[in-house]
Structures are given as C-alpha cells and as structure tokens.
Amino acid sequence: MSESYSHIAELHRTLPAFSPYVPATALPYLAFFLLLGTFILGFYFTTLPKDTIPIREVSVASAASILAGFGVVSLFCSSGVNV
Amino acid sequence: MTRLWHWTQVLYLLSCLLSVSWATKGNILSFENTAIVRTVELGGSLVAVTTTYAIQAVTGDTSEYIVALSEAEHGVTSWIEATLKGSVDPLQLKPLGYKHDYAAHLYSITLPKVPVKGETTSLVLETVQTKATYPWPPSSPQGGEQLLKYESDLLVISPYVTSVQRTKVRGPASIRSFTTPEGLGAFTDEPTAVQAGSVVTYGPYKNIPASANPFFAEESQKRILIHYEFNEGVLTVVKLQRAAEISHWGSNLNIENQILLRNTGPTLKGHFSRLDHQFQGHYHSASAQSIRSVPMLLPAGINTPYYYDLIGNVSTSKFRPSRSGKSRTLQFSYLDLRPRYPLLGGWNYSFTLGWDAPLSDSAKWDAKTGRYIIGVPYWTPITGSYVEEAEVKIVLPEGATDVEVFPPFNPLTVNRTVHTSYLDTTGRPAIILTNTRITDRHTGVIYVTYKVPFTAHLKKPIAVAAATFSVFVLALAARRVDPRIHK
C-alpha cells in the first residue's frame, strides 16, 4: 500500500463527512410520489389504444418503469432495507 | 553473590558479541538494564503484564533496544506495545522472530533518538496475555467459588545485563497459594516471595547476566504458579463474524455481529437449579460462575439495534442511546445485553447483534482524489474478554472500484470477494479480514478507501426499471393477443 495507516487516519479525521445525493429524510416522500406516479402511469397505459407502432405505449411504459426504478429503491431504503 | 560462569556460557556470550544476529548496529553490550519491574494484573480470560525497563546506554551507538519473550510467554501474548514512561504515543515495535541463539522471540524497539553514552531512559512494555489462565479445580457446583491458576516464568529475560529486577503479581481478589521458588541463591539472599494482601512480590533479584539464552533458560529460570480467586465472569468470544454493509442510497452503515460466547470458568458440576439461581439473584450476591449480563459500549448515534438468536428476538436487554449533542466522539450508546439463559461454566450462547448508523458518522469524502474513506471498528470490545476467531467483512456499494484496505494491525488473511444482496446485479465488492486472539486492547479502526462512479449509483434503479419495463412489454403483447374462440 502506497499510503500509511496514520496518513489515512488523519485524512479520515479531517475530511468532510459523506453526504448522499438524496437526503435520507426525503426518501419516504420520494418513494410515495414516485410510486404514485408509477401506478397512475400504469393505469393510463391500460387505457391507451392498440396502435400498430406502439410509440405512446412504449413511452408511457418507459416513464412508468423509470419512476418505478427510483421509487422501489427509495421504498427499500425507507423500509429499513438499505440497498 | 557473584555467579560463576560456565566456560560454555562465556563462549556463547563471545559469539553473541561478534554476531549481529538481529541485524542492527547494536549488540548485547549496547545497553544495560539498571532495573526491571514487571507487574502482572491477573484477570479472568485476560492477564495484563506491564514491564518497566530502566535502561542505560553503554555504547551510545544505537537507538534499537531489544526485548525478549520466551517461547512460552510469546505463545500467550496477544497484544504488545512499547512506550516511553510518561508518554502515551507508542514506539515503533518490530518483531524479529524466534532466534535459536537466544531461545526467545525478539522484538526491536526504536527509541526516539540515539541515546548518548550513559544516558538513562525508562521503557514501558505492555502486553496482554490470553489463554494464560485456567480454572482450578476445573469444575465447580452451582454457587461454588471460582478459582483460576496462572503460570509464568519468574525472571524477565533480556539480552542485556540486568542489575536488579522484581515481579509483582496482583490478584483481583484473594490469592490462595503461590509458588516459592528455590535455587535462586545466585541472585538474592532475601526471601524470594512475599505476599501482602492480594499482591505477591518476587525479588529483588540482582546481577542477572544476559538471560536470553538457552543456558539461562535451562539452569536458572524458574516457573511460578499463582492460584487465585476471581469474582467476575470468565467470558470468551469463541467466534465473531462481523459484517459492515455500506449503503450510499440509504446513507447508512449497518453492522451485524454473529457472536458465539462461552463461559470459560470452571465447568458446572452437577445439575443447574433455576430455584437456586433465582435465590442467588435476590438474597445473595450473584455467583461469579453464572454470567447473567454482558455490558457493551456501542458507537454513538446508532439506531434500531436488534438482538436475536436461533429461537427468535431476545427482549431481555436494555439499550440506552447516546445523548444527542454537538460532539459524539467521546459518547457511547450503552447496551446491557442479557443472554436468553444465564451462562454457567462451560456453557455456550450464540446470538446476532446488529445496528444501523448514519453513514456520515463513519464515511468521509475526499474531493481531491474523488474517493470515499470509511472507518469500521474491528470489533466492539467486551471488557475482560477476547475473541478466539474473528472475521470482519466489509461490503462496499455496488460498482465500487480502486478499493484499498488499511487494517490497524496485521490480519491473518485478507480476501476479496463479491457479495450479492437486495437489488444487486453485478454484486458488491467485499473484503474479509480474519484474525485470532483479539483482546479488548485491539480497538483499532479498519479504513477502506474506494471510488463509486455516479453511473454505478444508477445500477439499482435501472435494474428495477428494466424489470418493470419487461412487465409492461408482456402486457403490451398480451393486449394484442385475442384469446376468444371464433366460429
């Protein structure tokens, strides 16, 4: 190892603390609104006409999936399963 | 009385003078021990030995002072540290290994500067011994007394000449018996062992030649045995598996310990009576043989501690979180952990203890190098106890790269593996460190540095999004399938 233990310990003592991109206190609210959006878009998806080229369906499905992705991760963290 | 030297010993000492077997500038004439005082604090699982060396530089040409531990003493020594008397900063201590010429394990201590000829210094060598005591008698009925035996070499060996040395053995309670060594007329004319209360003093022994050699070990060294009473539980952690999981999304550090405890005091003779156990708790002082609770100091700022065993959640414990305040560095959370059943001699108990803590308390961000530095304590010490086998696993976030580990002391093994958990796709890098005989003085922190690119943080949401999109694709296809039966 190129650095010594004492150097790393000193760095750890002086550097700023870790700060998440999304504050942990905001995760429950984020989970609620993102998953609400997912379910709304999912319902809307079921009402869309069946086009030959399903551009609208794919767009709505993509948006719902992205909301679901972040919503589920936020839900897991809010529930105590810190992923 | 001057000791007569055997001609073979003279030849041996001459060979030591000519050889530089420990590869330093010095030799056995570089220093002289003007006084050595060893204090042995007897405990249950652990014995603390403090040896103070008053040394004088004879030649003034080296700053390396050599201490020697016999094979037996080295075998029970789990922690060793050297400081100057009055200082808290440890000196550089380097193990040189077993040297056959000296019949001892040698350690090199580097003094802050090269002492001038005639200069005196005081060194303090602290060691913690494990597996140095054993219960005697080996079994005891419930409520019976708990007695332990401790064996050790009488004389502190050194590659240098020693003017005078003494050993004090301090017991926590009464000392039932102790060895009175014979055949030490070469070093003393006074009684060899004197007891005052719970302290036995051996010595003073004067004009001891360089004693780290096979001749001295065979002809002059004696063994002492102390039989003493110990009024607290003798607790050993047989196995500890600690897992520290870092979550950037949850800004959380989860630490989970799987612990196997054993009462290594005298084994229970006869059956266990719950009635007698209850009476002891209410009407008499609790027997030392029965361990009812294990106090632990957990880190400050932790939340949601959990404690369960094979049967399920264990509710018989009390947790007091640390006080909130600006500085939490010196505060602890207190846990009075109570096993599901009292631990009698020879009994085991395995359980899981874990907690969550804010990641900001342990992890730091180095903007200059773009890396995170996390500090994970090696273990949560249980006072007076040690760990026979310890395994610490640090699970980093998925996608972590450039991982470097900085352990506080040399581990037995360091392995890197991949840990798969919730919502993982490629898995999380994990580092596993193992060690043996970790005492309550091994309170160091393992530092790990790593980098996590921004795109790595998106792995989990993208994985869930992909799974959800596949459901939508299935729905899209299902909508276009007509399952009706047509004429």
Structure description:
The complex is a heterodimer of chains A (83) and B (487). Chain A is an all-alpha fold and 83 residues long. Chain A has helices at residues 5-14, 27-47, 55-78. Chain A has a domain at 22-79. Chain A is built from 3 helices and no strands. Chain B is mainly beta and 487 residues long. Chain B has 2 domains: 2-13 and 22-229, Immunoglobulin-like (Sandwich); 235-463, tricorn interacting facor f3 domain (Immunoglobulin-like). Chain B is built from 6 helices and 30 strands. Chain B has helices spanning 7-18, 71-76, 214-219, 274-283, 454-457, 459-479; strands at 31-41, 46-57, 64-69, 77-84, 92-99, 104-110, 120-130, 133-135, 139-141, 147-153, 162-170, 175-178, 193-196, 199-208, 223-229, 235-247, 252-263, 267-269, 294-298, 303-308, 317-320, 333-337, 348-358, 363-366, 371-377, 386-395, 401-406, 413-419, 428-439, 445-451. In chain B, a hairpin with a 4-residue loop joins strand 16 (235-247) and strand 17 (252-263). The longest helix of chain B is centred in the last third of the chain and has 21 residues, at 459-479. Chain B is globular. Classes of the chains: A mainly alpha (83), B mainly beta (487). At the A-B interface, helix 1, helix 2 and helix 3 of A face strand 24, strand 25, strand 30 and helix 6 of B.
Gyration radius of chain B, rounded: 29 Å
Which oligomeric state applies?
heterodimer
CATH C-level category of the largest domain in chain B: Mainly Beta
Q: State the secondary-structure class of chain B.
A: mainly beta
Coarse morphology of chain A: elongated
How many strand units of chain A?
0
* Elements of chain A, N to C (H/E): HHH
Distance between the termini of chain B: 124 Å
Largest beta sheet of chain B: what is the strand line-up? 4-7-2-1-11-14-13
CATH A-level architecture of the largest domain in chain B: Sandwich
Number of helices of chain B: 6
Strand content of chain A: under 5%
How many domain modules of chain B?
2
Low-confidence stretches of chain B: 1-5, 18-25
Class from secondary-structure proportions of chain A: mainly alpha
Number of helices of chain A: 3
The general outline of chain B is globular
Q: Would you tell me the overall average pLDDT of chain A?
A: 93
